[in-house]
Amino acid sequence: MKFETTIIVTPDHPAFAGHFPGQPILPGVVLLGWAAGALGTALGRPVPPCRIAAAKFLQPVRPGTSLLIRHVRQPGGAWHFEILAGDAIVASGTFKVTTP
Exactly one of 13, 19, 71, 80 is catalytic; which is it? Predict the structure, then answer.
């Protein structure tokens, strides 16, 4: 199973304030939040409790960037994600569902 979501990083996003003046970059935690939110939207339900089994931030994301978030279901129920700006992967990782 595979899902894709597109997000435009607006220049006025509040995460840019103070991160960093004159050279704004989007914090990685925002990318993780968008990846989790996009997965929930694609599934049509809230993401079940999970942990971040892996995360890599490969390139900075600047204001005005168009991002593609791609999710692929892995064996065992984990979800691998990639966040791309054009052909470049800016972040990737895996959400692993936790069991109660």
Answer: 19
